[in-house]
Amino acid sequence: MKKRFRKIGIAARLTAVVAVILAVFLVPWVWQVAKLAQDKAREEANASMRASTGLLMSDLKILKGDAAHYPAEGTAEYDLLRANLSPYYNVDTPYIIQYYDENHKRVLIRSPLMLYYYASSAMYYGIDLSGFSEQSLREMNEAYTHELAEPIVTVYGRQVKTDTQVIFFPNRIQIVYEEWTAQTPVEETNQFCSDGGEYIGAYIPGKWPFRTDAAMEGYFDALRYLDTELRAIDGENIPDEEWAEVRASQRYVGTFQVMPYDDEVLLATAALVNRENAYGTCFHLMLPITIALYLIFLFLFYKIVRRMVSDPLVDTAREANRVSILAFDEFKPDLNRGDEIGELNRALSEMAATLHTRWDSERDLEDKRQQFVSAASHDLKTPLALIGGYAEAIAQDISPEENARYLAAIEQETDRMNGLVREMLDYTRLDRTDELKNRKTLNLTALVRDVLTEYAPLFEKRRLTADIADGVRIRGDETLLRRAVGCLLENAAKYSPENGRVSVRLTNSRNHLLTVENDCEPIPENELPRLFEMFYRGDKARDRAGGHGLGLAILQKILALHGLTCKAENIKGGVRFIVCNKD
After folding, report:
1. β-bridge partners, 515
2. Are 226 and 171 in contact (CB under 8 A)?
3. Per-run averaged pLDDT (10 residues), the chain, 583 residues
4. Which of 309, 330, 308, 310 is nearest to 319 (CA)?
5. For 369, which DSSP code?
6. Beta strand pairing status for 264-271 and 254-261?
7. pTM for this one?
């Protein structure tokens, strides 16, 4: 398990940690907010319901007027009271009114369930469906909403006309060829048809009372709740199982108000607006919305961490792998970032640059070693072969004159080999030297003049000119500088033709500190930079002078230790060597 967790990316780990932390704080907060929303919605709904019920009671008292009693059921006054209460129709808040007439008979008025039509006489025609059973209403809903787009409705029952509308209390209703009968028979004194008779004309087709099936189910649940509550108010003992069933199915809460009247009780009870709409929706929707926002946040957090941390680290790892395989040309880290990953990339870039330099240096050194071994082997092979041949000849019975000549040749070749070995040792020693130990201030003017005097025999058959400035001083090693100046003079004498011109010039300018020119054939431009490499000699120079090819390399090493360098260039009729500042 631990190994699997370590294989998970940084973005996934951070997202998991944030998810846990956020969940710990979010769950209690969501629960508290949802509870507060429920409480507030419940308070507002209860206040609204109490206001509606109070308004209903007030209007009911006004409709009663000066009559001594509320009307008995089945009378014209009863029908008129029901008709005048129809404007308060709202399937979302059904109600039941209970009172006792002058004969102390219990009378119930249920909230109207109206189906409205509008005729050309600018009068509304309402059909009160509240007297039908739940089963009949379900069947009627099926036929009315699915049989035809504008079904033909025929109503048989009793008609009551108010100042603003005509209300039908039907005994039966026929939609196309279907028919329903009211729970309490109503005397059929009138007939209404939406497609004929005196009501034919332009009209707005009636809308079925229930907007949706959910609203219809809520209406039936509310009526069952109100009926049970009314039975309980009237003193009936309701079994706990029935209460549990009613409360489990209904989505309403109710309230009731009472009004004393002739030693009896006038009671109105109304169902509150659907709890799911009032506060249940808030509670139930809050959870999926919160979960959705929670998941979206975690997804965005993962993407941001992936983009800002994981992907750059993957890129950095890829670039580091390129360095590990020495693919320096493909190494391109992001150096523009200002964060820790940018610091890592810059450190990696510096490491790669150092490694690249060292790798190139090691490769150059290896090339130089191979060149050194190859050149040394070549230069040592010839004298060793000659020495071997001469020794083999001496071992035979030869004349004293040839014996002496062969011994002289062996001695000459041995001297050449000793000179080569000494130069190789000097170059190796200088190559391992980082700084001079015997550095002091020297009179370079006097040093150059002494070296010119020492090497004067080399220029007996050549035209030497010298322009030596006075007072030129330099800090360095006198022995090494003598050797460097001598190397330049020896090189000029060696490669200049007989009676050729050699010019030496010393100045106080470090950009042209010492200049040595000599007449000779020009050196190819591509060979000029290589003159200071170990064992490099042009073919013509080898044939003429027979040098070892280490003199100029040793010269360059000595000058480098003094902060100087030497460069060669072709001039008209010869070559010029310039000793100048390394910078």
Report:
1. 505, 578
2. no
3. 57 79 79 72 68 72 76 84 71 75 83 73 74 85 64 81 82 72 76 55 54 79 80 82 71 54 51 49 68 84 78 77 75 74 78 78 73 67 74 75 78 74 71 74 91 89 90 88 89 88 90 90 85 66 53 84 89 90 80
4. 330
5. H
6. antiparallel
7. 0.43
